[in-house]
Each structure stands twice: as structure tokens, then as C-alpha cells.
Design a protein that fits this description.
Elements: H1 5-17, H2 20-27, H3 31-45, E1 50-53, E2 56-59, H4 61-88, E3 94-100, H5 107-117, E4 122-128, H6 130-138, E5 144-147, E6 156-170, E7 191-195, H7 200-211, E8 217-222, H8 225-233, E9 238-242, H9 247-251, E10 256-257, E11 265-274, H10 281-291, H11 294-304
Parallel strand pairs: 3-4, 3-5, 7-8, 7-9
Antiparallel strand pairs: 1-2, 5-11, 6-9, 6-10, 6-11
Helix pairs in contact: 1-2, 1-3, 1-4, 2-3
Bound molecules: 2-phosphoglycolic acid.
2-phosphoglycolic acid binds next to helix 7.
Amino acid sequence: MHVTLRQLQVFEAVARHLSYTRAAEELYLTQPAVSIQVRQLEESIELPLFEQIGKKIYLTEAGEELQRYSRRIAEQLAEAESVMEELKGLHRGQLNITVATTANYFVPGLLAAFNKRYHDVKVALDVTNREGLLKQLELNETDLVIMGRPPHDRDLEFEPFRENPLVIVAPPSHPLARSKRIPLSKLASQTFLVRERGSGTRIAMERFFRERGIHVKTGMELGSNEAVKQSVQAHLGLGLLSQDTLTMELKLRQLKILDVEGFPIMRHWYVVHRRGKRLSSVAQAFKGFLLDDAYVRKHKAQIRAQ
Ligand code: PGA
């Protein structure tokens, strides 16, 4: 039996919630990533762990047994980790971090998880758009930054740690909301609401359409993701946004992701700092925390090649 700790951790979360979606939310993974981990675990132990009846999933007998073991393993690991951290004296200090406006939708959750491990760490979190982030890095005003892929011509070290799919959204009553595989050419007749200049989302959107020779009409320019979402709901045009910003609106069915050819645009979130910067032990710990993920290890080479 060859199982990894990560597989057990993912399994434990699915077993606790009896939901792939909620486990994915808790672990900051996509739902397919969670399903793959569980499937691989089932393959290596050669027994099914869950069974699906109607829309619900249930633990099998093997699943129940494994849940007991994985809980104990998780407890032991957490204890070992906290003992090691005490030894390193990592529980104190201040983490200065600046994140892209768009990353602000998931970073507080990550900071909460980090804080559970490092209780006495104080966090100073600043939020600004891509242009603002690059300026802060240039002026050495922050320890770490979370942003879309930074430009190559700056003296920066950066590592990807999470997917950032960009999607097109419309109000649910929009004529295209139910269409399947909408051809890109159909978007040329649509008005798009855009973020302010200096936004990474906007730069990615403009590049995507430019490279495909599609000229979309741009409507209002809005200074935040929230303003774009509100304006899309008010039928002022379509929006192109990071899926990370949409959790609430999708749940409440206030917005619908359009099924457009070539979408989502798959970007990634990067943890960034100036090359050669001496990171404090807290900043190093947070960077390690972000990168300590099966997704990162598995996809690093692939993301770098993009
Ligand atoms: P934002 O996003 O600048 O549009 O908030 C950051 C990025 O995607 O680079």
C-alpha cells in the first residue's frame, strides 16, 4: 500500500464534510484536484472509500476504518509540527504582505490557517492592484507579495502556488447564459466592463483578445472587482473576472459563468519578493506554507513552461 500524507489529508477532509466541494474549499484546491487525490488513494489501497447514493456520498466500511487512522495521523503531525516550530522560535514576529485586489478574496482564509500554526505572528496586510504591487516591490516596502505572474525584466524571485482561472460572467437572464461552447467571434458584438488600468485582470483580458484578433467593445471602466460584478448584475455588460472573486455570486445565482470557447484563461497566483531579499523567519515560513502543497510540487515544471 503506497499512500501519501497529502492523499490522507484530502481524504480526511472529504470524509469529514461528506462533500468534495466543501473539502476543496477548506483545502484551497479545485474540486477535480480533490477527486483525483481520492481516486489515487482508492487505487493504491484497492478498495472504494466512498459510495454515491443519489446526490449524497457515504463512507464505505474501508472508508470508515481509514478515517480513524487518518485523523490520528493528522493529530500526530500537527503536534510534531508545533513542537518543531516552538524549537525554531517561529511563533513571534510580523508578516508584512501585500496582495493583489483579486487575491484578497482567498488570502484571508490562508492567513487564518497560517495563524492557527503561528499563533503570535502579527500580520500587516495591504491590498492594491498589480501596478501598485510592482511599485511596492521596487521600493522594497513589503516582505512578500501575492500577484499574477510578474514581469521577467525585474529583479524578482517568484513561484506559482495556486491556479487563477479567469472567466466571463453575465446575469443569469442574459441571452448567452444557457448557450454551450459560445464561439469567441460571438463576443465581438458584446460590451465588456473592464477593471481600471494597472489591473492584472484587465491586462490578461486585453492580451487574450488581442492575441486572437477579437475586438470587443469596452464599456464602463470600474475600479474594483466588486464594482464590475454589481455592474454586470445591472445588465451594463459582460465581465471578465477571476473565478476566485465569484464564490458568493455563483452560490446565490446572481451571476452565471458563460461557456465560451478558450475559457477559462488559466493564470496562476505567485508568491513574489525581491531577488536576494533576506526574508524574516516569519516571511520564510509563510512562503513555505504557500508552496507546501501537492498542487505546486506536481505542476511546477508545467507552470514554469507557460
Ligand atoms: P488585479 O489582479 O490587479 O486585477 O487585482 C492581479 C493579477 O491578476 O495580476
